[in-house]
Structure formats: structure tokens, C-alpha cells
Specification:
- The protein has 5 helices and 43 strands.
- It has 697 residues and is mainly beta.
- Strand 4 (83-91) and strand 5 (97-101) form a beta hairpin.
- The N and C termini lie far apart (75 Å).
Length: 697
């Protein structure tokens, strides 16, 4: 239910304070005029009388003690001729300002509701000029402080008036905490559905008579971490927030700024705070005429397939459109028209000097007609969309994440038939040469689905084929990164391309920790990169690494033998030679151990860190040199200082790796191994011949 608007709003009070009289001192005349009108309108009770009548030199300050009840008050100070600027603040018993008015002028006014009765101080500062003044206060006729405060100036019930191209000052210290913006976490919902946050806010009303690009810039004082957001239509409806017009920090915590193209109507601007922050601020609202969406859409430049276009965004450009990703695309934007003659695979790529956002619509001015959106592709300066579009006209928007973004951009749209086109590496016959140890950029945009690796689903994706030759026996690692493809993307490796379904296969081969890692004999090999998802296509980077196989095998053969029931101690150090599927890839130095299992058994491996800050990882392979033979991997068992594996193993020799989380994580540890029959009953420990003492490395 809408609350009744209070009788004395901010406009009435402001006009009262501007009154003057030629007789007597000007300050007394203003006091008498304000008093008579306030009492006449019935908005407040009788004046509690002048608190003080004094004189100050330029820059001087004065303080006056007052005892206040738990009710709402109007405090005002009026200056004589010669007074140019008076500031007024109310300070509690702890010395903290609870309300202040630092606006420029020969009078200053506070409207504040006291929640705790007691001793307070009114502080007057002669910020400009010099001379006499009268300081007074009025008590609100309604003693309900909470209800009166809700009707006070600066609330949704009584928003402060705001005009374009002017700067206003104020304070949220005495405001109500009733609303919050989406950039502040949304706040919890109150009983009217408005939403509230811990910080108080001040509300302003701005009316536009024509479409304009509006910039609201707020500067906060001291430690006040402020925010600003804008609503249209209904002040108390948090769902009425204008998209992309909520900002907490603009460069730092003392500045907030929003920019948006607004149609004619009334808008509500909220000056709020992060968390429970409150304080003094100044706000400037500027505007300039902008073309309508229809005009911009009608003049959209064509985006010709396979032809890059370049452009430049400026912080002075219009933020006309918003997106569903990239925080709404709050920066300046450009729109292009893309004609798709028939259903096609479409790849749109943007590279920019700033944090860019890229999106596509089937109707230019309708946000709900967005068909694809991407913020970051690999890093914040690249955005990419891979999608299938039916024949028709589409609109492509190059936008920015930050409202003040500026810089150069390059935009390109490429089309390919839905069934696939032609590209090098599309078949085994034209496989792309691969130089081991180097990275190669690939793209399945125009690829067919010719091959199905053994670890791919029955309905996999488009694939690209590579080939390489080995002159000597080597350890070869192959993995993907910077990929548009899904985490399920596969790499398959075989001597015969036609037998790729029977070759080595690694599902989810993204990142070195998920590489195909194998010892290979000399000869020719084929590598297939498959998106593993129907109709999924895009760019990727295929990485490779080649090492001397003999050195790796010697390392594996030299691994000490673990004795079930015994605890070994060690310290990891040296290079990173092996990676795992868990623990951020386990890209740290590692120690290796051999574990012999004579009959099907349950093995329990436990590692405990004995070095401060060392986060150990533990994994197990059936083949030391083959990453695809990993049987188990664990990073944390209860906490970061422990890792544990418990799994059933068939007879054989396994390799146990003690590693570290992610990169550059090494230290001392203890490793315990227990071996039991698969039924769970105790098993006789395996004793190697000859017996070996606990291994220390």
C-alpha cells in the first residue's frame, strides 16, 4: 500500500529557507518566515525555539549541545548578509556525525529522525563569507519516528527533485535502509517486495521530456563506499531497475557512475552504499540527445561474412543496448547487420583493447530476441560465439563490460554449411602436419564428422586430423587449451588413421594434466581432435611435447618398492614430470613408488604433509608412463594436509605418485600403504626379497 505523502516535502522546505525580509536581521526574518509557514501547513509541531544566535568568521566552527527525544526533527541554520555558505551537521554522543548538509548557500537544513534519545551536538561551519546566523529546530507533529522518516525527503514516498546539468550534495547518514541495487547483491526482500540492504540511501526523481543519454556521476567523501542505481516507473519496485544502470565502484570505492539511454519519463536515482557504508556525497547528472533504437538499428552497418571490420569505442559513445552476459554490456556499443542466406554454422570473433562483450539478436531493438552471448573467450580481450543460425537477418553487437571502456576492436563473422565445408585436415588423406613441441591453432567450424575415437560417445562431434613422424623412441604428450570445445573434447592417437577407433584415446583432453601421455616407437602417427558433442564446433589450440623415452622409463623402473604395512617418508623436489586428473593437474615436483599386487586386493594409500604449507596430492597408475592408465587420484582427504586413495586393484605392478596441488607445491610427507583382500579381511603384507628398510628420499 502506498504511504500518504508528508505535507512538507523537500520543495516546500527549500522554498521556505530561501525566504527573506528587509526588516531586522536577515537570519531572524528567514527563521520567522520558515516557522510561520511550517506551523501553518501542520506538518510539524511548534518550534522548539532558536538553539543559538551567534556570529562566525570565515572558516570558523561552532558547536551547540542539544537534548533530543526519539522523534523526527528539522534542524536549520540561517545566515545574515555577508554569509555565503553555511554547513550544518548533527553529531551523536560518541562524536559520530549522524546527519549533515554541506550544500552551498547561506542556509543549511537537516531532516533527521532520532532513534535513541539523549545528548547530541549541532555543529555549524562558516564555509564561505562571515557574519551572524540563527540556529533552530522544529519537532515533527507525528511522534512516530519510523513512519515520519519514511515520508522524509529522499525516500520513495518523497524523492528529492533533480534537474539535469546540476550538482547536488547530501548525506546518506540519516537515510532509511529500504532499497538496494543488483550490483550490491540484490538485498533481502521486505514485506512489500522492495528489497533492502544494510546501507541507507537517498532517492532522487528525474523527469525527462525526450530520449537522452544520461550520465549519473557520484563522488563520496572520506571512507564512504557508495553506489548508485536507477529505477524507472515504480520507485519501490526492485524489478524496475534499469538494465546496466547500477554501479558500486567506478575506478575506486569513492566514485560511482552509470550511463544509459533513457526514454521520456520519470526515473528514480538511488545513492546507496556498499555493506553498511554511509556518508557525504556529491552527484552530477548530465544528458545529451541520442538517436532512438529504431534509428540506430535502421542504420546498422553490414557485417560481411569472412571480412573483418575494425572500429573504436569511446567512453563518450552511447550505451544503447544491453546483453544477458558480461554484466549486461554496460559500455558503449556498436551494432552490425549480418545476413545469413541459408541455415549455417556461424562463428563470430571479437578482439579488443578492452574487456569486450559480444552478442547476437534476431530483432535489433528487442533484448529478449538475443540468440547468443559471450563475454570472455580465453581472456577478457577476446569474445567468440559459435552457433547455428537459420536463414535470416541478424544483428551483431560489439559491446564492453565496463561502462567507461574505450579502445579499438576487430570483428569478424565466418559462415560454413551446416553439413560441413572444406578445410585442411578434414580427412585422413589431407591430415595437417604437426611439429612436436610446437602449438598449432585449429578450428572445426567447417569440419565434418568423419571419425569416432574409442572414448567418444556414439554421437560425437566434428573432427580435425593431424600427422607426425618419430625418428626415435619417445615419450609424446598431446593436449588442448584455449578451446571453444567442451570439456568432453577428445584426442585420439593411432599408427593407422583408419583404425583411430582402436587407438589411444583421451576424453576431456583439456589442459596438460589431461594429456595423451605415451611412449611411442619410431614411425608415422595420426592425431584426431574431436569436439565429442554433436553440432559443437569452434577454435582450439593443440599442444605437444616430446621427451626421451629411455630417461622416463629409467625413472619409472628406479621407483622404490612400497611395503604394505610400512610408512615411508620423503620430500618432493625437482622438475614436474608427471601430471594428474585432480589437484589442479598436480603440476609440481613428484616422487614415484612401485606397488606390487599379487591377488585382487583393496589398497589404501594415505599421505600426510609434514611441511607447513605443503598441500600433497596422491595418484595411482597401472602404467607409469601412460596418463590414461590412471586408476585413482585424490587431493584433499578431510583437509589440505592429507590425501587418501582406497580402491580395488587386480594383480599387477602399479606406480604411486606423491605430488603437490597445482604448480610449485612441494614439501616433506609420510606415505602409508595398506593392502587387504578385496573382501575387506586383513591380508598378509607382501614382503619383498631381500627386505628393504623404509625409503627416505
Amino acid at each position: 500500500m502506498k504511504r500518504k505523502r508528508y505535507l512538507v516535502g523537500s520543495l516546500a522546505l527549500g522554498s521556505l529557507l530561501a525566504m527573506g525580509c528587509v526588516s531586522g536581521t536577515l537570519s531572524n526574518a528567514r527563521f520567522q518566515a520558515a516557522h510561520n509557514t511550517l506551523v501553518a501547513v501542520g506538518g510539524v509541531g511548534p518550534s522548539l525555539g532558536p538553539v543559538a544566535q551567534a556570529s562566525l568568521e570565515h572558516g570558523a566552527r561552532a558547536q551547540f549541545a542539544v537534548n533530543l527525544e526519539a522523534r523526527c526533527y528539522v534542524f536549520a541554520v540561517y545566515g545574515d548578509r555577508g554569509v555565503e555558505d553555511l554547513d550544518l551537521s548533527l553529531v551523536n554522543a560518541s562524536g559520530q556525525p549522524v546527519a549533515s548538509d554541506t550544500s552551498r548557500g547561506p542556509q543549511s537544513t537537516l531532516w533527521h529522525c532520532v532513534s535513541t534519545a539523549g545528548a547530541y551536538t549541532l555543529a555549524v561551519h562558516m564555509a564561505g563569507g562571515e557574519g551572524g546566523f540563527v540556529l533552530s529546530r522544529w519537532a515533527l507533529g507525528n511522534n512516530d519516528a519510523a513512519g515520519a522518516s519514511a515520508r522524509a525527503p529522499g525516500t520513495c514516498e518523497n524523492p528529492l527533485p533533480l534537474r539535469l546539468n546540476e550538482t547536488v550534495t547530501g548525506s546518506t547518514a540519516s537515510g532509511r535502509s529500504e532499497h538496494t541495487g543488483t550490483c550490491l547483491g540484490g538485498g533481502e526482500e521486505d514485506e512489500e517486495g522492495g528489497g533492502r540492504s544494510g546501507a541507507p540511501e537517498r532517492v532522487y526523481a528525474l523527469t525527462l521530456d525526450r530520449r537522452q543519454l544520461v550520465t549519473v556521476a557520484v563522488t563520496q567523501s572520506g571512507n564512504y563506499d557508495g553506489a548508485v542505481f536507477v529505477r524507472s516507473g515504480a520507485c519501490e519496485d526492485r524489478g524496475a531497475e534499469v538494465p546496466a544502470m547500477c554501479n558500486d565502484d567506478d575506478g575506486d570505492t569513492q566514485h560511482s557512475r552509470v550511463v544509459g539511454a533513457l526514454d521520456p519519463g520519470t526515473y528514480y536515482i538511488f545513492v546507496d552504499g556498499f555493506g553498511r557504508s554511509r556518508g557525504n556525497y556529491s552527484m552530477t547528472v548530465t544528458a545529451r540527445d541520442v538517436p532512438s533504437m529504431a534509428e540506430v538499428c535502421g542504420s546498422a552497418a553490414p557485417l560481411t561474412p569472412n571480412m573483418p571490420v575494425t572500429g573504436q569505442l569511446s567512453a563518450q559513445d552511447i550505451n544503447l543496448f544491453q546483453s544477458t552476459c558480461g554484466a549486461g554490456g554496460r559500455g558503449p556499443d556498436r551494432v552490425y547487420r549480418l545476413e545469413v542466406p541459408q541455415e549455417s554454422r556461424v562463428q563470430i570473433h571479437q578482439e579488443s583493447d578492452y574487456d569486450g562483450v559480444l552478442y547476437v539478436r534476431s530483432a535489433c531493438a528487442e533484448q529478449q530476441r538475443e540468440v547468443a552471448c559471450n563475454d570472455d573467450a580465453g581472456d577478457i580481450q577476446h569474445s567468440r560465439i559459435n552457433t547455428v543460425l537459420a536463414a535470416g537477418t541478424y544483428y551483431v553487437y560489439t559491446d564492453a563490460y565496463q561502462s567507461n571502456a574505450s579502445g579499438n576492436y576487430t570483428l569478424q563473422a565466418d559462415l560454413a554449411p551446416v553439413a560441413g565445408g572444406s578445410l585442411p585436415g578434414d580427412t585422413c588423406a589431407d591430415a595437417v602436419p604437426l611439429t612436436l613441441g610446437e602449438s598449432v591453432e585449429g578450428n572445426t567450424l567447417a569440419a565434418h564428422d568423419d571419425l569416432r575415437p574409442s572414448c567418444a560417445a556414439a554421437t560425437d562431434g566434428y573432427d580435425v586430423v593431424y600427422r607426425f613422424n618419430l625418428a626415435t623412441r619417445s615419450r609424446v604428450k598431446l593436449w588442448l587449451d584455449e578451446t571453444d570445445l567442451t570439456e568432453a573434447s577428445t584426442i585420439a592417437l593411432a599408427r593407422d588413421c583408419g583404425q583411430i577407433a582402436a587407438g589411444t584415446c583421451r576424453a576431456g583432453a583439456v589442459g596438460e594434466a589431461r594429456a595423451v601421455d605415451q611412449i611411442l616407437e619410431p614411425g608415422a602417427y595420426f592425431v584426431v581432435v574431436d569436439s565429442a558433442t554433436p553440432r559443437r564446433f569452434g577454435r582450439f589450440r593443440l599442444n605437444s611435447r616430446v621427451d626421451d623415452a629411455a630417461a622416463v622409463e629409467r625413472l619409472c623402473r628406479a621407483a622404490p618398492l612400497l611395503v604394505p604395512g610400512r610408512t615411508v617418508s620423503g620430500t618432493t623436489s625437482g622438475p614436474d614430470r608427471f601430471q594428474a586428473s585432480c589437484a589442479g593437474g598436480a603440476r609440481s615436483a613428484e616422487n614415484l613408488y612401485r606397488l606390487v599386487v599379487r591377488s585382487r586386493s583393496t589398497v589404501r594409500l594415505s599421505v600426510t604433509s609434514t611441511t607447513e604449507g605443503y598441500d600433497p596430492a596422491l595418484y595411482l597408475r597401472a602404467n607409469c608412463t601412460d596418463a590414461t592408465s590412471e586408476r585413482a587420484c585424490n587431493d584433499d582427504a578431510g583437509d589440505v594436509h592429507h590425501s587418501q586413495i582406497e580402491t580395488n586393484l587386480d594383480p599387477g605392478t602399479y606406480t604411486v605418485f606423491v605430488d603437490g596441488f597445482s604448480a610449485n607445491n612441494a614439501g616433506a610427507y609420510t606415505l602409508d600403504v595398506q593392502l587387504m583382500p578385496a573382501s575387506g579381511a586383513p591380508n598378509r603384507p607382501i614382503t619383498p626379497t631381500p627386505p628393504r628398510p623404509p625409503v627416505r628420499r
